[in-house]
Amino acid sequence: MSSATERASPGRSKRIDRRKGNGMKGHIRQRSKGSWTLWVDLGRDPETGKRRQQTLTVRGAKRDAERELRDLLHSLEVGSYVKSSRITLGQWLEQWCQSYVAMHCSARTAESYQSEVRRHLTPFLGRILLTQLQPQHLQNYYSQALTKGRTDGKGGLAARTVQYHHRILSEALSHAVKMGLLGRNIAKAVDPPRVERKNMATLVLEDIPKFLEATQGTPYYILFYTALYTGMRLGELLGLRWCDIDLDMASLSVVQALYKRSGVCKMVEPKSSGSRRRIALSPSLVLTLRQYRVDQQVQRILIGEPMADSDLVFSHPGGKPLDPGVVSHTFAKVLRKAGLPHIRFHDLRHTHATLLLKAGVHPKIVSERLGHANIGITLDTYSHVLPGLQERAAESFDEMLAPGVIAEDVSKMLAKGPGPDSLGR
């Protein structure tokens, strides 16, 4: 049974003692308005026999300090206490990005994490000691980020961006727990903002012939064609080499992607382990790529640079990589010229997946073609397509059974008339 006593001290200082049932004790002293110091008795050092104490500063109301002391004493009692460190959240995030993230994530993910940490998380939360971070700190940040979180001062961040920040914080704090710097991940006690689901924009089936006709006058026609027929990401397409394509087996392998950062293009590993995949090619795409390869070989011979298997499939005449920004800009111009609805280049990937699902292709196959980590991502992303598939599945089940059998069963049911259950008996 715990007890608490308050004793007045000179000035505004107040001391509050608390003791756990096992003799473990701690106390709080008010340092100034809204600032409290916690002292916790850690017992005697087994080697020196000297008593050990831990101090911690808490800012806020007295009830915040009392709650922190209760949590601290409880963690000591159950054996989950981790000794306080003077490292700040900003220092930990930087250390985590440079050590763990750089080693275990793709280059693009690592740069994205570092950018968000330095531009948003560290300026707002970076000075808080890692061990003093509370759920309310994160909740306050999410609220402010949604209203005025943009670095240009022109309003708030999108809910999806703030949700991404929550994921970064949660992963970083989970790693701090593993490293023994924290006793728990407080991000798990905070709910990030909800993101309104929007149906993605795609080309409808009737618009595809018009789109392909409009792209034939551009140098990117085969690139657009391949994107539509494979669902590959733009970076994956721009990193594709001829040695990655087996036209005889009608397949290609995604093993690298082109990534542009600070004006420099470089080849990186695919987005995730699931992104390294094999994609089966349709007969029409195989024929298109065969002719494209012949045309490219002739062009390279004319400029005196014979083509090699390691050359990029989609590149400038001399083999230089294409600029992703220029490709996306050209794509938007083609849509406007053709009078088609505006979509992003990435939406060709969504168009590919949507058409496959509507054609009855199993979501698992679609997931593998897109390189999703698991089928759940595919089902969640394209849930708007699934209601129609459910109806088609129900109709297909009827069609599989002999019409005569169904008619016979229905006739028998009608002949029997309403059963007892229909009368409420």
Report on the structure:
The protein contains 15 helices and ten strands. It has 425 residues and is of the alpha+beta class. α2 (89-104) runs antiparallel to α3 (107-125) and α2 (89-104) crosses α5. The longest helix is centred in the middle third of the chain and has 20 residues, at 159-178.
What's this model, at a glance?
The protein is an alpha+beta fold. It has helices at residues 62-78, 89-104, 107-125, 135-148, 159-178, 208-215, 221-230, 234-238, 283-302, 324-338, 347-358, 363-370, 375-381, 386-400, 403-416, and strands at 3-8, 14-19, 25-32, 35-44, 51-59, 245-246, 251-254, 257-261, 264-268, 277-280.
Task: Based on Cα principal axes, name the global outline.
Answer: globular
Q: Helix coverage percent of residues?
A: 40-55%
**Count of separate structural domains:** 3
Stated plainly, the CATH topology of the largest domain is called hpI Integrase, Chain A
Stretches where pLDDT is under 50 for at least 5 consecutive residues are: 1-13
Instruction: Give the strand content.
Output: 5-15%
Let me know the average pLDDT: 84
**Total strand count, please?**
10
Described by strand count, sense and barrel closure, the largest sheet is:
5 strands, antiparallel
Give the end-to-end Cα distance, rounded to a whole number of Å. Answer: 59 Å
- What is the radius of gyration computed over CA atoms, rounded to a whole number of angstroms? 31 Å
Kindly provide the name of the CATH class of the largest domain.
Answer: Mainly Alpha
CATH superfamily of the largest domain: Intergrase catalytic core
Enumerate how many helices there are, as a single number: 15
CATH architecture of the largest domain: Orthogonal Bundle
Strand order of the largest sheet: 1-2-3-4-5
User: Structural class of the secondary elements?
Assistant: alpha+beta
